[in-house]
Amino acid sequence: MSKPTVSPGSNVRNYFNNEEDFRMRKVFLALGIISLSLLAISPCWSSGQQPGPAAVEEPTEPSEINVLLMASATGTGLNDMLADFESKNPMVNVKELTYAPAAGYDTKVELELAAGGGAYDVIWATGRSYSRWALSEWIVELGPIINDPKWTDAASFNFEDFLGGSLRFLDVDGKLYALPILNTTQVMFYRGDIFEKYGIPKPPDTWDELMEVAKKIHTPEVGAIGMRGSRVRGGVMWPFPQVLYGFGGRIVKDFPKDMHPVFDSPEAIKAAEYYAELLQKYGYKGTLSAKFPDVSLAMQQGKMAILIDGFPGVGPYEDPEKSTVAGKLRFHYVPGGPAGRWPAFGAHGLAITAGSQNKQAGWEFIKWTLSTERQLRAGLEKSEMALTRKSVLIHPDYIKKFNYADGELMRVLAEQFDKQVRSFYRPMTAEWGEVEDVTALAMSKVLAGEQDAASALREANKELYEIYKEAGYYKE
């Protein structure tokens, strides 16, 4: 099977089809399910005059591909749907589809990619490590493949149907190396029955209000709050920046203009102290070291009254066969602080490894996985919500299925995506993996009571300075 020629000069050209843009915005806003910022018609990755992929050769025998995905609330049903893929692509056999645990996933993949990356053809590219993998040329640029009719039928692929916000998140220096499989933010899940029991008329709007509510409703049996506390990638540094930014803190001074770290500012220290007090005093048992699977299971088991985490996890919480809290949940925005609300935002993608010997077959798998038909099935049959195509999100069957709390979740998401999600959430440069390791370790020490916030964050800030200095952001 021929190997695509990856063009280093593909440029991003933003464009808007005014009539279509206007129509889609009206439809989404009328349904109240998504934001203006994510509904802008997707940027077009154009190869211009650069050469595209090599000519496609008709395969004479089936190709085998290996796929590596991160275990997540999205994509878990792919195994059950592979028969559909192989019936539509008889010359491609998915030899292995592996779900790796989120803990340690990035490290596992980086070791494989740095060694040549030939063991897997398609991988899940996490938002936190994606830019590093792209800039290291460990994954293939997709612009030339998307724009070459020999590889991609434009009409059936319908690139413009992807949410523009997710594509912009995956833009690396004007190039696209993955297509979005997951698009997410965090929301507040809270037990309406518990709030009613304690006479709390409305959910908290600020972090200070959340602390006061937590004091009232916390019990040893049902903790007031659940948030991630683990030091692993995708652990504490997924939710904590919402508190950090809300208190006026930052990781770097002015991303991306000034990359000097300020993780030890008075505001950052206050945020870390707040986070530790909230979880230490009022968190459910286990939250101080919790990863996503931990908080998800604890919510299903009724061990907490409030959870602040990614909205895609709602499916199992509202499944009466899996959850003791199904039908009891209400939904609200992420709280804000003196500097406002800073709800999390991120995307993950599917990418072709540079070492793959079956890139064409891998591309067919990506197209099928991210198609409207397959994503809609995932939503309806597997309760997946963090889907990435506009046509799926406005589908009547999708809207009907996810009408949680009489549409409250969708209304919260629409408002939060539209007015509260900021232009960036974490400084996602190629160094983010190292940065997350350092900051998460500092926060885990604070949460465990091993070190006070001021000293832990000062030590972390010194390490961050060296990381960014070595990367060439400054020379002093």
Features:
alpha+beta; two-stranded antiparallel ribbon; 476 residues; globular; D-Maltodextrin-Binding Protein, domain 2; eight-stranded mixed sheet
Overview of the structural elements:
- The protein has 476 residues and is α+β, with helices and mostly antiparallel strands.
- Helices cover 41% and strands 16% of the residues.
Number of domains: 2
CATH architecture call of the largest domain: 3-Layer(aba) Sandwich
| Gyration radius over CA | 22 Å
Number of helices: 21
Portion of residues within helices: 40-55%
Content-based structural category: alpha+beta
Q: What do we call the CATH homologous superfamily of the largest domain?
A: Periplasmic binding protein-like II
Mean residue pLDDT = 87
**Beginning-to-end CA distance, first to last residue:** 50 Å
Quick overview of this protein structure:
The chain has 476 residues and is an alpha+beta fold. It has helices at residues 18-31, 36-39, 78-88, 105-114, 130-135, 143-147, 154-157, 164-169, 192-197, 207-217, 240-246, 266-282, 292-300, 314-317, 359-369, 372-382, 390-393, 396-401, 408-420, 432-447, 453-470, and strands at residues 11-13, 44-46, 63-70, 92-100, 122-125, 171-172, 175-176, 179-191, 223-226, 252-254, 258-261, 304-310, 329-332, 336-337, 340-341, 345-352.
